[in-house]
Amino acid sequence: MAGSIDVTGIMRSITSSLQTPVVVLLLLLSVLTVFLAGSLAGEFFTERLHMRRKKVCIPDMVEMFHSKEMTVVECIQQSSLLNRQKKYLLEITRHPGFTGAQRESLAVRQIAEAKALCDRRVRVTDLIAKAGPMLGLMGTLIPLGPGIIALGQGDTFTLSNSLLTAFDTTVTGLFSAAAALVISTVRKSWYRNDLSVLETLMECILEEENRHD
Questions:
Q1: pLDDT in tens, 33-90
Q2: What are the residues whose beta carbons fall under 8 Å from the beta carbon of 210, sequence distance 6 or more?
Q3: CA 57 remoteness from chain centre
Q4: Which end of the chain has fewer surrounding CB within 10 Å, N or C?
Q5: What digits encode the pLDDT tens for the residues 127-160?
Q6: How many CB atoms are closer than 10 A to CB 191?
Q7: Which residues have CB under 8 Å from 122's CB, separation 6+?
Q8: Burial of 5 from C-beta contacts in 10 A (0-12 / 13-18 / 19+)
Q9: Where are the domains of the chain?
Q10: Contact 96, 187 (CB under 8 A)
Q11: Whole-angstrom Cα distance, residue 62 to residue 76?
């Protein structure tokens, strides 16, 4: 029919125009994944390696809290805890005028901030792990359309280029997703242990501070 809209042609134009943005996004995800892998390695050598050499023994710290040899503040400062853990724990001791309920509210707030920090650190890799395969699939399917047309016309050169692009985007997307998944899994394991230690010591400090009131 004259004047009818070629819906199929419009869809083909839209999908073809998406190929370059998808490829660019995949390249950006790959670069970002490599950067995050380097960040993970840096965190391991600057923080985790030290913690492995000097593991935090919670029962020993609790006994030191109860003893009179050192104050709670000195015990925290001399421990092998991460600096951010020390900051959250020391915040509880900086308000001697607070009541027990106020300290508990502050402790809840500190733990919430610690959890939010951990969530922010793994949010990007979680997103890459989900978006990588989707973009890789889009990068695979988009060039197959022109490739199939080229096959029907006997244009093997265009067909081979389309297949090569499809394979490259698939591998790039899967690589980014797999690496991001590994980074997220490792960091979640670290942060889960950090939060467990923080919550346990926070409860002990609250009990010790409330005892002195």
A1: 999 999 999 988 888 877 666 676 777 777 777 776 778 888 888 888 888 888 998 8
A2: 100, 103
A3: 27
A4: N
A5: 999 999 999 999 888 888 878 778 788 778 888 8
A6: 17
A7: 184, 187, 188, 191
A8: exposed
A9: 17-81+99-212
A10: no
A11: 11
